[in-house]
Amino acid sequence: MDAKVLIESFAEFARSKNVDRPTMIRILEDVFRAMIRKKFESDENFDVTINADQGDLEIFRYREIVDDNSEDIWDFDKISHSEAIKIEPDFEIGEEVYEKIELEDFGRRAVQMARQTLIQRIKDLEKDILFNKYEEQVGEIVSAEVYQILSREVLLIDQEGNELILPKGEQIPKDRFRKGDSVKAIVHRVDMSNANPRIILSRTSPVFLERLFENEVPEVYDGLITIVKIVREPGERAKVAVESYDDRIDPVGACVGMKGSRIHAVVRELQNENIDVINYTENLDLYVSRALSPAKVSSLTVNEETKRISVFLKPDQVSLAIGKGGHNIKLASRLVGYEIDVFRELSEHEEEDVLLSEFADEIDEWILEELKKTGLDTAKSVLNLTVEDLSRRTELEEETIEEIFKILKQEFEQ
Question: Where is the S1 motif domain positioned along the sequence (predicted)?
Fold first, then answer.
């Protein structure tokens, strides 16, 4: 293979990978200089000129002529006078000899290795370009097409044919994909695995929801409305705290849109995830009340030391505050940064009731917590239910429930 064929084939391959001309020339020169160093120990006294467009390669070796008895005669950039006059009879000591080196002088095997090295360098460069491209897009939405569905992940390809990965844990539980589907997600992170970039996408990240709001709500995109915090139970519920520095703009109304037009587009993309948009405030009491929406809070007390908030609600508001599967209270706690405990507000005829926390010496703490998760915080609220009701609402066994009833009844019998 001569220089022209080698360079032209490499240039064509490089162009197919969208490698720019300066980078292409630099790679060619690096590889040829590596060949020179392998054969001649050093490339310091070599000039390498490449014209990738024409497929031309010129390699010149220059050495200083020294006396045959000189101590420097074995230096890589020196040549004896007797050797120099074989090249040109009238050369004299002290002059420089310029000698053209042909590609064939390196040997067929070296040329073949150079060709493989050039291709590998382009492939490595392509990986670096891909890594850098997506690293700059971390946190941004991308669209890609599903081409393979595996048990632990879905593989997608972007418009340039690059592979993207959407792991099971980054999918919304209700997501169901088919080959050829177009999928939106954010670039979650970019890893290197065995020198290959792995672009990991996510649809469960709060950042994905934030970017969807930016796409659907111009005021958010323009910075007129700020998203203070987002908490999610992907596919189930999300709470978004928003704030506007312009009194003329209602941040909640702008995010929801006329008849819910803006929020509906976001909800559809998130597989009907229920989204509560809340007006942020630094007034903690008001913020907690808004965070527990749609429940209406009667009163609350804050314990700064334990970072817990006790919230009191009317009996018919307790289940709303807790929400399906406890999602509402969990998200509210994460949104405000405090652990929220929900208690029923006792009416006059319920004053004789006893809080479940009073039975901590007789009933295990984990059982009391299980009861509180369902909004049961007093003895009578538990006794008003049947064993079957309580078994359905909790993960407690019937034998345990019967023992609880026995302990609670004894309190009132006394």
Answer: 139-204
